[in-house]
Amino acid sequence: MANGNDEHRLTDGVSVAAIKAFLADLKKKFPSKYTEMTTADACKQLVVPRTQQDNCAYVDLLRKQSPKRVGKATVFVSHAWRYKIADVLNVLLEFAKEQARKEDSKPVFFWFDLFMNNQNANVTANLPQEWWSTTFKESIANIGRVLLVLMPWRDPVPLTRAWCLWEIFCGISNEGTEVNIRLPKSEEKALEDAIQDEYEAVTDTLVRVQAQRAEAFNPRDKDMIFEAIQNGVGFGALNQAVKDQLRAWCLEKAVAAVEAMRARREHKTEAFAQLCGQVGVVLNTFGEHDQAIAYYETALLIYRRTEGKKGENVATLHNNLGIACRRKGAYDKAIQHYKKALAIRVEVLGEKHPTTAETHNNLGELHRHKGDYDSAIECYSRANEVFVETLGDKDSNTGMTYGNLGIAYLSKGEYDKAIEFIEKALAIMVEILGDKHPNTAMTLGNLGIAYLEKGDHDKATDQFEKALAIYLEAFGDKHPATADTYTNLGNVYVEQRDFDRAVEYLEKALAIRVEAFGENHPSTAMALENIGLLHGDRGDKEQASAYVERALGVFEATLGPDHPNTRKAILSLRHVRGKDDHDEEKEKKKKEEEEEEEEKEVGEEELEEKVGEKKEEDGKEEEEEKKEEKEEEDGEEEEEEKKEEDGEEEEEEEEKKKEEDGEEEEEEKKEEDGKEEEDGDSNKQEEQELNQVQEGSGDGKAQAFAGQQDETSQDGSPQQPLTGWLRKRGRRRGTFRPCWCKLDDGHLAYGNAASGTAKRHIPLSSVLSAEVAHGGEELRVAVPGRTFVFRPDDRSDASLADWCTAINSRMSEGARKGVVVSVGCCVK
Fold first, then answer.
1. Is the CA virtual torsion 304, 306, 312, 313 positive or negative?
2. φ/ψ (deg, to 5) at 725
3. Range with the lowest mean pLDDT among 111-115, 278-282, 386-390, 560-564?
4. Which of 229, 318, 521, 643 is the S-S candidate for 517 at Cβ 3.0 to 4.6 Å?
């Protein structure tokens, strides 16, 4: 490059012919070692000797010798200098062939730093810091395409190099710039093999992306690039952008492996089924649940044919389909798949087999997420008994189920039992992993939550501080797990009404989330909302509103206006501003009714004038018709809801008819007939907890998710539950039947009687809205895909308005989120 910032724009590139000629020169000059030479070796032994006399870049020689081999750059090449130069150049040539096969193909010219920069002088070291975030980034945008050469796939070198991370981000963040990732042929084959045999290694690749740990050959380059990142987008946004791009690339390669096998007409083999199953796991891990389910089902059809309906892989696929359906929120389908897996494993392996126990554990996870804690505890207990008997009381799976039992009792509000089981899990973690392991810290955090909910603030603080010390040593002070622990400590001080210390810890958590995820991420928004609600508790409406408004803006931008987190942020904003959501809705409805009444009066006057000119009998008929029309309008909404429900039932019936296994179909029918009649069998409208969840595997690994703490009143004590009789509309017939309702512990539960287990729990985390309708005669509670409708019962002590206000209040207060840890499902 020549001197001067403007002259350092990346404009020129070298042709395919130039790449081929350089590769041929390399082979001719170093025939025995050119395949092992790195880019750095090629620079020192070939490029520098040829350009040293003229003190110029290699491209300058090409301009003199072969000017047609230099042109406007169309592809920016991002690579690591420790790569083997022959591998890199062959990737460029393969990429050029791909482009040439396209209809609108144009000549390709590569901006390749080995050729374009003057290697006799470190030009970049003398460039000002702003060059990287302006001229360099603009140059990549003008080129329009970034080609990232990635190897080895297990631990890609570019993800550890500051230069490469910055180049990738400049491509990703420029609208209209395309980023392509390519591997050498040998690495592509290795990746395809790994997808089939080591899918966890594929997904773990993304975890290692941390720009702040990247290095550069020249420390001054690293300093300049880091300064540009910190003054620009920040490390959090850079890490996330790179991970998103790699995630998309990884999914593309996984799907391509399946389609390549299909193209070879191997789509009916067990090998194809195995690949589909493994790719399904990768897709499910990355949140592509629908696509994962499709691949699982393809594999299931093959294994049913080759192994029979009771094969080991058939059971495994039903298990994994259950996990995918649960993560998607299709709880009824998840139950069906788990029960099929369980039935096969009990018959083939026996009730006392660890794999059977894993399925019991997974069923427990499903019931817990549905809010059916008693069923969850029953499943976890069965799994735990088998694990203790077969693997011993010190095995990680035993510890996992102890932890899950503790979380279930914690959710149920039985804090002493929660503490008992979490302490058992902790003892196993310490013995197996030691007292400095992150999983030990995870269990300490759960124990702290149990003590916090019980009201023992000192013990809660003690557990959180132990967990914090482990996380700081293991991960440092910029890790999300550290932020979770700061959040939990902040919540202790909220309960103690020590708002100054609470703000201190919650602000620490926010700072980490901003750096880890960026300003515009849902996790950051949750931290903002927590601080806003805290300022609201302090009576500082201005600060509270500012934080919650920022959170709301992020939720709207990232999750959309209809997501439950967005709806809750709206409620939180009204709460901190001192507005009652229910009163506001009543005022709005009252105004609408007044406007309708005015329009009606005007219409009646006009009608009266016209009717006076006609016969009295005709007038009566017209009046009668108008009355009937009004009645039809009043019932229109109810009719539409009923039609929607009927349509869903018809869809489910069609799905059932497609079941190939008649015995399974009959079994499912019996299960459905045994359900409460008014609830029906539609899984499409099942209420779902929409907290962000990540599940660990059956080896005892764990990951954090944002949980919801019990709501508290202004003095920090738990709110009293609201209970009473209401009449709930059934989904099949539309009739209203009496039910006993209870609002507490983050759920609206209902059942047939005041005593006994509730038939259904509606998590408040899934409630989109609650309002009184039809002139105060109906309470409507909306969740994704369904609206629950209640009417007063003669035995009701509380009015529908009381229920509505209580639900909205708890939704608003419940927006403050603590951090619990889910041990998770067993994936096969």
1. negative
2. -85, 135
3. 560-564
4. 521
Domain boundaries, the chain: 6-253, 266-350, 712-813
What CATH superfamily classification does 266-350 receive?
Answer: Tetratricopeptide repeat domain (1.25.40.10)
Predicted pLDDT at 732: 62
Mean per-residue pLDDT, 613-637? 50
Instruction: Please count the other Cβ atoms lying within 10 Å of the Cβ belonging to residue 215.
Output: 11
Give the separation between CA 758 and CA 736, rounded to whole angstroms.
18
Q: Check for a shared fold between 266-350 and 712-813.
A: no
The DSSP line for 337-402 is: HHHHHHHHHHHHT-TTSHHHHHHHHHHHHHHHHHT-HHHHHHHHHHHHHHHHHHH-TTSHHHHHHH
Residue with tokens 């030691």: 434
> Which amino acid is it at 263?
A
Instruction: Tell the burial category of 410 from Cβ atoms under 10 Å away from its Cβ (0-12, 13-18, 19+).
Output: buried
pLDDT value for 716: 36
Burial class (CB within 10 angstroms; exposed 0-12, middle 13-18, buried 19+) of 421: buried
For residue 157, what is the DSSP state?
Answer: G
- The DSSP bridge partners found for residue 786 are 783
Q: What is the DSSP letter of 47?
A: I
Query: Helix, strand, or coil here: 161?
Result: strand
Query: 0.70 cut: is pTM over it?
Result: no
Give the Å distances, CA to CA, from 629 to 155, 594, 612, 642, 643.
70, 20, 21, 19, 19
CATH of 712-813, one of 3.40.50.150, 3.40.190.10, 2.30.29.30, 3.30.420.40: 2.30.29.30
Q: How many helices (H) and strands (E) does the chain have?
A: 33, 15
Q: Are 422 and 450 in contact (CB under 8 A)?
A: yes
Find out whether the peptide bond into 152 is cis, omega within 30 degrees of 0. Answer: yes
In this prediction, residue 277 carries a pLDDT of 92
Helix (H, G, I), strand (E, B) or coil at 779: strand
- Residue pair 668/760 in contact by the 8 Å Cβ criterion: no
314-366 pLDDT, tens digit per residue, is 999 999 999 999 888 888 899 999 999 999 999 999 999 999 999 999 999 98
Q: Residue 504: what residue type?
A: E
Strand partners of residue 70: 14
Q: Are 467 and 441 a contacting pair, CB within 8 Å?
A: yes
Residue of 309, 297, 319 lying closest to 348 (CA atoms): 309
Quickly list H helices, 475-580.
Answer: 480-495, 499-517, 522-538, 541-558, 564-576
Exposure on the CB side of residue 438, measured as CA atoms within 13 A: 18
